[in-house]
Structure formats: C-alpha cells, structure tokens
Design goal:
The complex is a heterodimer of chains A (110) and B (107). Chain A has no helices and 11 strands. With 110 residues, chain A is mainly β. In chain A, strands 2, 4, 5, 6, 9, 10 and 11 form a 7-stranded mixed beta sheet that branches. Chain A has a 4-stranded antiparallel beta sheet with strand order 1-3-8-7, with no helix packed on it. In chain A, a hairpin with a 2-residue loop joins strand 7 and strand 8. The radius of gyration of chain A is 13 Å and the shape is globular. The relative contact order of chain A is 0.33. Chain B is an all-beta fold and 107 residues long. In chain B, strand 6 and strand 7 form a beta hairpin. Chain B is globular and about 40 Å long. The chains are: A mainly beta (110), B mainly beta (107).
Chain lengths: 110, 107
C-alpha cells in the first residue's frame, strides 16, 4: 500500500536560519507531489507542486524553494527563514484519484 | 485561486443530515470534483469524488448537478466527530484548496 512520510513533526527555528523539510512516498511511482502551508486558522495554501523528477511549479513567490531529486522524494527548503514562514506544512501526493497527505510539520520561527 | 466557492461555515444537529454545497461554475468537462475534510491539526482526509454521476461510499454521498456547475456533499447522519473544515476542489494538476466550509455538529 502507498504511504507518505513527512518529518519532522515539529520544528523551532530562529529567524535567518535555513530550512529543509523532506517528504517521501512509498508504494507508488511517478506521483504528483505537493507542498502546502497552513497558517493558524487559515486554509491550505499551495506552495509547490511537481509532476515529475526535476519539474517544480511554484505558486507563491517567496523565500522558499522546492526540489524533487528522486521520483518519490520532495524537499522544501529555505536559505533564510522569516517570522512569516511559521505555519503548518503539509506534503501530499496524488495518484490515480484521491490525494494522500502526510502528518505535517509544525514550524515555528522565533 | 481555487476554482470553487463554499459557504464559510455551517451548523448541523447531531444525527441529522449535513448538506454542504459547492459551486464550481468554471469546471471543465474532464475535471472531477473532490471532497476532503480537515480535522484540527491534522492533514486533510479524502472523502469522495465524482465526475458527473452521483456517488456514495461509507462516509458520504455526492450529488452533482446535471450541468456540473455545483455539487453537494451529504453526511447522512452527522456525528460530533464530523466537525471539521470541508473542502471541495476541482481536480487539476495544481490541486488548489479554497477556504472550505467549517461544519460544526452540535449535540
């Protein structure tokens, strides 16, 4: 069966520090992969999506970037975090139908 | 921007049916309608999807209008655990969520 792993579950980082969140999928090949951010009390904001290795579509211009070095690996990065980067980050994959979400990373930038 | 519009909030009495509407007037002929829900501090959970026929599963029913410009998610017997934010999205590669409907099931 397909599973999605996202880590860490929680993270506290100082302003200006780098960020790397990793998401991996098992049990499927060539999935569409997504990164979302959710601020407290708000909806899901699509940040990046990828339909294949090395193919990244950016939705929101900001200091975040994404990479897909392998078919089932999706990485969200930042060189220098801002306070406004705090939020709940979710990775998801979509196969032939429904989407599956990871458990999320709650990032607090201090 | 999301291609769907939903009311921001709804209440429902426990044990009654919850009917959650969604407008998707610009939907294309080959786009599916998907419904997800998100319980606080968790990732969204898939509920149901459909193209043009009504669908039913163990969680809910989905009614899609003949012109496909709107749909309704029906939870036949809402429980307190159904309290969540419900999202209706139109499937494209860029899976965009709107603000959803916050459903509160009251005892």
């Amino acid at each position: 069966s397909q599973t999605i792993h996202q880590w860490p579950a929680t993270l506290v980082q100082p302003v200006g520090s780098p960020l790397s969140l990793e998401c991996t999928v098992e049990g499927t090949s060539n999935p569409n992969l997504y990164w979302y951010r959710q601020a407290a009390g708000r909806g899901l904001q699509l940040l990046f999506y990828s339909v294949g290795i090395g193919q990244i579509s950016s939705e929101v211009p900001q200091n975040l970037s994404a990479s897909r070095p392998q078919d089932r690996q999706f990485i969200l990065s930042s060189k220098k975090l801002l306070l406004s980067d705090s939020g709940f980050y979710l990775c998801a994959w979509m196969g032939s139908g429904e989407a599956f979400f990871g458990q999320g990373t709650r990032l607090t930038v201090v | 921007d999301a291609k769907t519009t939903q009311p921001p909030s709804m209440d429902c009495a426990e044990g009654r049916a919850a009917n959650l509407p969604c407008n998707h007037s610009t939907i294309s002929g080959n786009e599916y309608v998907y419904w997800y829900r998100q319980i606080h501090s968790q990732g969204p959970q898939y509920i149901i999807h459909g193209l043009k026929n009504n669908e039913t599963n163990e969680m809910a029913s989905l009614i899609i209008t003949e012109d496909r410009k709107s749909s309704t998610l029906i939870l036949p017997h809402a429980t307190l655990r159904d309290t969540a934010v419900y999202y209706c999205i139109v499937n494209t590669n860029d899976m965009r969520f709107g603000a959803g409907t916050r459903l509160t099931v009251k005892p």
